[in-house]
Amino acid sequence: MRSLGTGKEGVAKAASERPELIILDLGLPDLDGVEVLKKIREWSEVPVLVLTVRSSEKDIISCLDAGADDYLTKPFRTGELLARVRNALRHRPSVQEAPVFTVGDLQIDLSARTVKKGKENIKLTATEYALLALLVRNAGRVLTHNYILEQVWGPTFSEESQYTRVYVGQLRKKIEDDPANPKLIVTEAGIGYRLNTEPDSG
C-alpha cells in the first residue's frame, strides 16, 4: 500500500501504477478530494473509497455523484474500513466479468435476465428488473437517489425520490427473507441504497 500526500501526486500515481483500490481523503493540501475523484473518473473505474470528516448529506452525495464507490466518515472503526475495502475489491470487478451474480440464495443472470431465489424463479416487472440490475452492476457501492432515478427512469425524473422508495419496497418483498428487515438492499439514510454483498455478516 502506497500513501501519498497531495491530490496531484495521487492522480499521477493512479495513472502510472493502476492500483486495484484507492482510499481517498478529501482533506488534501492542494486539491479538493472531489476534484481528484473527478480527474480519476475521466479515465478509470478503479474502486474509490472516500474518507472524510464531512458528514453532511450534501457532501456525501457530491462524493458519490462524482464517482466514489463508497464513503466512510471520520472517526471510523478499522474493522469497518477493512470490510469495505474487501467488499470493493471482491465484488465490483467480478460483476463486470461474469453475467451471473450470486449473493446469499439469490442469483441474478444478467445475460438471461432471470432472477432466482433458491430454486424459485422470481418474476419482476421491467422496472423492478432494471433497478435490480443497476444495483447488481454496482454491487457494494452506494447509489444516490438521483443516480438511480436518472439510470432507471431518465434525467427528467431526477427529483422524484419517491419512485426509488416504492420500487425498492416492491423488490424487497420479492427477494428479501424479511422485507421489514432487509439484508440485501440496504438503505443509506438520506442518500440512497446499496446492494449488500455480505448479507450474512450482520
Compile the SSE list and pairings:
Elements lengths: L6 H11 L4 E4 L7 H9 L6 E5 L4 H9 L4 E4 L4 H20 L2 E4 L2 E4 L4 E4 L2 E2 L4 H12 L5 E2 H8 L8 H15 L9 E4 L3 E4 L7
Parallel strand pairs: 1-2, 2-3
Antiparallel strand pairs: 4-5, 5-6, 6-7, 8-10, 9-10
Helix pairs in contact: 1-2, 5-7
Descriptive account of the structure:
The model is unreliable at 93-97 (pLDDT under 50). Strand 9 (185-188) and strand 10 (192-195) form a beta hairpin. This protein folds into two domains: 1-96, Response regulator (Rossmann fold); 98-202, Arc Repressor Mutant, subunit A (Orthogonal Bundle), CATH 1.10.10. With 202 residues, the protein is an alpha+beta fold. It has helices spanning 7-17, 33-41, 57-65, 78-97, 126-137, 145-152, 161-175; strands at 22-25, 48-52, 70-73, 100-103, 106-109, 114-117, 120-121, 143-144, 185-188, 192-195.
Concise structural overview:
This protein has helices at residues 7-17, 33-41, 57-65, 78-97, 126-137, 145-152, 161-175, and strands spanning 22-25, 48-52, 70-73, 100-103, 106-109, 114-117, 120-121, 143-144, 185-188, 192-195. The two termini are 28 Å apart.
CATH homology-level superfamily of the largest domain: Winged helix-like DNA-binding domain superfamily/Winged helix DNA-binding domain
Count of domains: 2
Strand percent estimate: 15-25%
Strand tally, please? 10
Taken in chain order, the helices and strands follow as: HEHEHEHEEEEHEHHEE
Estimated radius of gyration: 17 Å
Task: Output the strand order for the largest sheet.
Answer: 4-5-6-7
Number of helices: 7
Instruction: Label the structural class.
Output: alpha+beta
Helix content: 40-55%
CATH class of the largest domain: Mainly Alpha
Low-confidence stretches: 93-97
Measure the end-to-end span. Answer: 28 Å
Rough outline: globular
Largest sheet: 4 strands, antiparallel
Looking at CATH, which topology of the largest domain would you report? Arc Repressor Mutant, subunit A
Oligomer classification: single chain
Rounded mean pLDDT is 85
CATH architecture of the largest domain: Orthogonal Bundle
